[in-house]
Automatic annotation (TrEMBL):
It comes from Ridgeia piscesae (Tubeworm). Residues 267-291 are annotated as: Disordered. This is Schlafen AlbA-2 domain-containing protein. Residues 276-291 have a biased composition (Polar residues). InterPro entries: Schlafen, Schlafen_AlbA_2_dom_sf.
Length: 291
């Protein structure tokens, strides 16, 4: 979403005086890639996938839980965003959500992150409900604020594909002629910052990003615009080795350069600056004449 957009006609995601919004039916100006994923549903966990998504006589389903994408973003240092309510072709569709249903998404996401191993700290993710408006929607409608209600404290039914009380409430509102606002739900996994003191599960002295298992015990990684899962132990070991190598190789190279500079400096002092040792590590005994 581009906050710098000037109007709803110029771009899918626009900004009013106080908030950003999407335009219904338009196409977002970006594609799925290593940090962006579109989902047309909001089934976060494995348990929320309805049984009717199972393809007959196969072990495949027509949809997978959002959790796999979130887990893949968590296991990549760059993080990423899942856009719930944007279809695979980039069309803005969204969901009609009451305040109660938005609360449900938040508590369901928190519950999911707590079930990961290791659990995901709250500062590493966030969720935004970005309004969807029609092209002819007035500024007054865009700025409308949803009122608070004490019923929001009622516990929600989690880890279930069946409707929660908040879903029944939205149906009742619709039958009464009250239309709930539509939203795109952006679940943002933030990039990994190794020096953040809130990181309780940073690995070792290098403070490496932890590899999280999702609620089913699987480990997922984001590769380009897809999620790769079901890594075995050897693959995870190889990934860990690569992380360590990528972390320490620049430091090792800097130390090598410092050693070469020190050798040259000492050689100048001993020989009066006439010659210097070769910088070629394969021939440490050779020297070259300085111009």
């Amino acid at each position: 979403m581009d906050p710098s957009s000037k109007s709803a006609e110029d771009s899918t995601a626009s900004c009013s005086k106080t908030r950003c919004y999407y335009v219904c039916g338009s196409i977002v100006p970006f594609d799925e890639d290593v940090t962006h994923e579109f989902k047309g549903h909001k089934n976060l966990s494995e348990e929320e996938i309805p049984p009717w998504t199972q393809i007959a006589n196969t072990d495949r389903r027509t949809r997978g839980p959002v959790s796999k994408c979130l887990n893949g973003f968590l296991n990549n240092e760059c993080g990423g965003t899942v856009y719930l309510g944007i279809l695979d072709d980039g069309t803005v569709n969204g969901f009609s959500l009451t305040q109660f249903q938005k609360d449900h998404v938040r508590v369901s996401l928190d519950d999911l992150m707590e079930r990961y191993h290791p659990p995901v700290e709250e500062h590493r993710y966030t969720v935004k409900f970005v309004p969807i408006v029609d092209k002819d929607c007035s500024e007054e409608d865009i700025e409308r604020i949803v009122s608070y209600n004490s019923r929001r404290q009622t516990p929600h039914t989690l880890r279930d594909y069946k409707r929660c009380w908040c879903d029944q409430d939205r149906i009742a509102q619709f039958q009464s002629g009250i239309l709930a606002a539509r939203y795109v739900i952006e679940i943002i996994i933030k990039p990994w910052y190794c020096n953040d003191p809130r990181n309780k599960h940073a690995v070792g002295k290098m403070k490496a990003i932890p590899i999280h298992e999702d609620e089913t015990g699987c480990v997922n990684f984001r590769k380009h615009a897809t999620v790769v899962s079901h890594y075995n132990m050897q693959q995870l070991c190889d990934i860990s080795k690569d992380m360590v190598r990528n972390h320490y190789e620049p430091k090792i190279e800097r130390l090598r350069q410092e050693i070469r500079q020190l050798r040259m400096s000492h050689y100048h002092q001993d020989r009066g600056g006439d010659t210097a040792p070769s910088s070629d590590p394969s021939d440490q005994t050779s020297v070259r004449r300085l111009g």
